[in-house]
Amino acid sequence: MPTLNASKWTRAELGAQSSHANARDGSTWNGHTTDFTTNNTGIVGYQRVRGRGGDLYKTIRTFFYFDTSGITGTVSAATLNMTGYWAGSADVIVVPSTAFAGDGSADMVSSEYGNISFNTNYGSEVTSWSTSGNNAITLASTALTNIKDNDYFICALIEHDQDYLDSAPTSTISVFNGVDFSSQVAYLDYTVATAGYGNRVIPVPAAHIGEINGIPTANVSKVIGVS
After folding, report:
1. I need a surface site. Which of 98, 120, 136, 191 has the fewest CB within 10 A?
2. Three-state DSSP class for 215?
């Protein structure tokens, strides 16, 4: 199964906010780390803590850009993978993003913190997080189509229960998950659907061949011993 490393990634946070709405819907980060290759205890999360003048709120999101220009076939399956480092009970979800200038042509900037979609997602909620092994997040059909059709795939990993669902907690809460990028950064693995025998046959292009001796090409791997 082919793999593709992230080309760019940015861990960003919007903290010290006086309300859930400010932390969740704010458009500009007040802290970030770009393309780190170490371990990090909080790449995604949500927090409400007691402050001297009132409770304070924080969201943490991590954004990824993948160069998918080399993927042109139909993608039948894909996962977003990253090695866990620490888990603080955050449920997470992958959502579309238009960070990195929307096409990966520039590094992410502060004003793109809110460039995510809350109206859709790229997969189901993830309710468990490995602290040392690989976390493989299955991507939905919308993501598979975008990987094939675009030269880029941009997504964000965000906390699910408060951030994605826009649900303000009624008491203090602190949930974060971490990763270890010291030996392997985030990557996609994917499967490109095959159409069976893929070569010319005297000399008809494979795309114009539906059967060989009455057998659908999807079921043919070799013709007279030639693959």
Report:
1. 120
2. strand
User: CB of 153 within 8 A of CB of 38?
Assistant: no
Query: Which are the contacts of 16, defined by CB distance < 8 A and separation ≥ 6?
Result: 30, 56, 58
Would strands 152-159 and 92-96 be described as parallel, antiparallel, or unpaired? Answer: antiparallel
20-26: long-range contacts (C-beta < 8 A, 24 or more apart)? 20/48, 20/57, 20/162, 20/168, 20/169, 21/168, 22/57, 23/57, 23/58, 23/59, 24/57, 24/59, 24/162, 24/163, 24/166, 25/114, 26/59, 26/113, 26/114
With tokens 């993003």, the residue in question is 97
Residues 39/85, Cβ–Cβ less than 8 Å: yes
By mean pLDDT, which of 36-45, 182-191, 204-213 is the weakest?
204-213
pTM greater than 0.90: no
DSSP state string for 161-173: IIIITT---SS-E
Which of helix, strand or coil describes residue 174? strand
Residue that the structure tokens 């997969």 belong to? 123
Reported as a single tens digit per residue, the pLDDT across 161-178 is: 999 999 999 999 999 999
Kindly report, residue by residue over 69-100, the tens digit of the pLDDT: 999 999 999 999 999 998 889 999 999 999 99
State the amino acid at position 38 in one-letter form.
T
Q: Give the residue extent of every domain in the chain.
A: 3-192, 195-227
Close Cβ partners of 215 (under 8 Å, ≥ 6 residues apart): none
CA torsion through residues 181, 1, 147, 123, sign? negative
